[in-house]
Amino acid sequence: MTVVRNRLALAALAVLALLVIAAVFSPLLAPDDPAKQQLLARLTPPAWEGGGSLAHPLGTDQLGRDVLSRVIYGSRVSLLVGVGAALLAGVVGAVCGLFAGFRGGWPDRILMRFADIQLAFPSLLLALAIVGFLGSGLWNVVLVLGFTGWVAYARVVRSEVLSLRTRDYVTQARATGVTDLTIMRRHLLPNVLPHLATIATLHIAAAIVAEASLSYLGLGVPKETVTWGSMLADGQLYLGTSWWVAVFPGLALMLTSLAINITGDALRDVADPKAYRR
C-alpha cells in the first residue's frame, strides 16, 4: 500500500504540513505577541464560551497571554528539537551501525556493548541527568535527545549491514580493490536509508514528547521561550477552572505525536511491503 492510498497517512501528513507552516510563519499567523501580558484579560475563556472574545479565539492564560499565539509559537521549538535530535542521532547511529556491522570483530562488540549499557538506563532519566549537568537550553536539549536516541539507529543499521556485506556486489567491490569507506558510502548506506527514514520519523515524535516533558519539569528550554511543555506546566493549576490553558497545548502535542507516528508506520509499510501484507 502506498502512502497516497492510505487516507489515515494523508490526514497525518496534512497535520504535519500545518505544523510546518505554523512553525515557519509563526509571526504572520499568530494573532498576538505570545509574551504580551494583559492582566485585565487574564483567564479569558475561548471565543465560543460565555465571556469569550474573538480577539483571543482559544482564550488567555493566567497572565493574559493569548493561548493560540503561544500554541503556534510553541510549534517552532517542538519542530526544531524533534528534527534536530533525529538528525544528530541518525548521523551518529548510522556511522556506528555501518562501522560495527561491516567491520565486525572487536569494534562491533565494543559499540554494541556500549549501546546495551545505554539501553539499560531509562532514556528520560538519562536525559534528566545530562541536562542537569549541562544546564537548560535549546541546543543542550537537542544534544541530549540526540545522544540518547542514537542506539536505535545503530542497531537497525548494523543488522541490515550484517546481511548486506555478504552480497555479491559487496564481495566483488572488495575484490576489485574498492576501499571499505567507499563500499559503505556507495553500496551499504543507500540500502539502509529507507530504514533510517522510518526510525527518524518515530524518533521525532519521541523527541518532541521528551522535550515537552523536560520543559514541564523546568529542565528544558528556558521559561522565556514558549514551549508546549511549559504551557502544560503553567496550566496544570487551572484545569478545574480554566481548562483551556493546558488542554490546547496538550492537544497540539498529542496530535503532532500521533501524526508523526502514523506517518512513520506508513513509511515502514512502503519500505517493507511484505511486512504490511503479513
From TrEMBL:
Residue ranges annotated for the ABC transmembrane type-1 domain, each copy included: 75-264
SUPFAM superfamilies recorded: MetI-like
Source taxon at top rank: Bacteria
Transmembrane helix found in the keyword field: yes
Main location: membrane
InterPro entries linked: BP-dependent_transpt_permease (IPR050366), MetI-like (IPR000515), MetI-like_sf (IPR035906), OppC_N (IPR025966)
Subcellular location: Cell membrane
Segments traversing the membrane: 77-102, 192-217, 237-260
Keywords of this entry: Cell membrane, Membrane, Transmembrane, Transmembrane helix, Transport
Membrane topology classification: Multi-pass membrane protein
Gene3D superfamilies in UniProt: MetI-like (1.10.3720.10)
Family: Belongs to the binding-protein-dependent transport system permease family.
PANTHER family xrefs: D,D-DIPEPTIDE TRANSPORT SYSTEM PERMEASE PROTEIN DDPC-RELATED, OLIGOPEPTIDE TRANSPORT SYSTEM PERMEASE PROTEIN APPC
Protein name in UniProt: ABC transporter permease
Species annotation: Streptomyces javensis
